[in-house]
Amino acid sequence: MRYRRTRLTGSIRMHWASVPFLVVLLVMTSAGCPSPRQNCQCGRGATLPAIFVDANILLGFWSLQDGRVPSELLLPLVELGGNVLITQQVADEVNRNKLGVFLRSSAGFSASLPSEIPTHMVVSREMASWNDRLKADRAELDKARKTWNDSVRPDLANAISNNSDLTSQHLAPLLRSAVMPSEGQLSAARDRRERGNPPGKRSDPLGDQISWQQFLDAVEGVRRVWIITRDGDFAEVVNKSRLLNPLLRSELAERGVEKVEVHDNLANALRSIKEAGVHVPHELDEAKLGELQKQEAEAHYPQPPYLTWPDRPWRCPQCHTVNEGGVLSAHPSQYGGWSYWAHCRRCGYKWDTGEAYDD
Questions:
Q1: E strand intervals along 94-251
Q2: What is the pTM of this model?
């Protein structure tokens, strides 16, 4: 069987790649480390650790499904307070995209119940009781679906549109402190795009490039940085770890950065930051961080059609089961000819991988 990427690839990238790279810069500006611990590894001086937080991490606080970030991680980020520097690009892009992220992730109210046992197969009171319970559960599910669609979802969407939802209120002090780029940073960002250097793409508007240039200036002399992103423009995945693009690493090294960590999981990044001795005002113990790390990771399994081949775990959009690989069968393809279709092992939902059926 040969692998061939198809038009679905565009669907993959549009899911999150359509949101330009955003970055939150955490720069400690005190004369000393804010941590009371003596073994802080972050380095002392005029500036201390810096953290990148990509768009799909921040916007994950508004997502109910794919890309969802646990609520418990919001305050640990927010409570870093005056130590957080946000670019104007961050403020604009978060405000522009948060409503869309919520609406797309909340569009489907899906919950599946098993089928009732046909009357001609009912041979016991227990089976009859089972059918009665299913009917009652289905009625409650229909009622909940109607309430969600008619009032809960519209109310939440209206609050997000008005910036009155709790997430927007929590992040408001940080977004209001957004820093505009200098003319020099804008010029460097344009040059970066023209040369085709990461992050960002030459065909996209300036965004990623501006934030990166501001970050480079902010981390001058900083010894250690954390980059939290799932964007392939920044890092490649190798054995579940992310390795920073060599060009970006070289640019950081030129500014005195000695150690770079790339994470695609905010909980895991906070654990690393905490272990480095950086004081996080809103404390999360090791057990809680481990639990949140798992929750966050499970929320990032892609759903069809955001992948072209079931060569990694994927979440069924109908029953939400995480499938390791998938059962494959050949069917007429929406792209012409025949292709392999993957099936959810639990509910049977199937989708066109776009991989040509060659047999």
A1: 224-228, 235-238, 241-244
A2: 0.74
